[in-house]
Amino acid sequence: MTPTLKPRCQGLYAITDALLIPDHRLLDTVEQALLGGARMIQYRDKSADAARRLAQAQRLNEVCQRYHVPLIINDDVELAAEVGAAGVHIGKDDPAFATARARLGENALIGVSCYNRLDLALQAEQAGADHVAFGAFFPSPTKPTEIRASIALLREVRAALRIPIVAIGGITPDNAPLLLEAGADALAIVSGVFGQPDIRAAAARYANLFTPPAP
Questions:
Q1: Could you give the number of structural domains in the chain?
Q2: 141-189 pLDDT tens trace
Q3: Closest alpha carbon to 110 in 82, 133, 143
Q4: Is 1 part of a structural domain of the chain?
Q5: Core vs surface per residue 62-93: b (16+ CB within 10 A) or e
Q6: Domain range spanning residue 163?
Q7: What SS3 class is residue 112?
Q8: d(CA 170, CA 160)
Q9: What span, in angstroms and rounded, lies between the C-alpha atoms of 112 and 133?
Q10: Residue 200 lies in a domain
Q11: Which CATH number covers residue 183?
Q12: Which residues are catalytic?
């Protein structure tokens, strides 16, 4: 039997935000992003209401599966395992990569935040991470005090790594081409999609950046 290939992290990577999306609109809102061309969804919710987070993640996973798009859970390895999500994204304060891999298995997509540090990305790739995230590249309304990363660093990272690179932080359809030219494979977007009045159209503006021009 031929092993199933894991999806590669590329294109629009839309990240939910409870401050931008009311609970009763979560599923519809994410579906609009998927219709606009999102190729990966991350469920990020820092609330302490475990039952609410479980219910939301389960429903989101069902929506994402209908569109054949991976659902990634932010920070919470156990929640990812419980709902059968495609994977998890971990950062410096999250469970160690080895713990996440052991719990979720080899088929899980595991992303690692590397902020502005090439050394963390090299370690993550060596450990078996599926993709790494860098940023913030631009001032971010979601995380205004976030560590900043440079385009020069992105070029350096692209030359050093084989796995996909996710860029995050203040990315707009206007400044995104700078990141793609420097080697980003995916754009992680929060308010640029979910903070817009027409979510499907906003997602499409990012997704179209990855569409080759017609001959």
A1: 1
A2: 766 667 899 999 999 999 999 999 999 999 999 999 999 999 999 999 9
A3: 133
A4: no
A5: ebbeebebbbbbbbbbebbbebebbbbbbeee
A6: 11-209
A7: strand
A8: 24
A9: 6
A10: yes
A11: 3.20.20.70
A12: 44, 113, 143
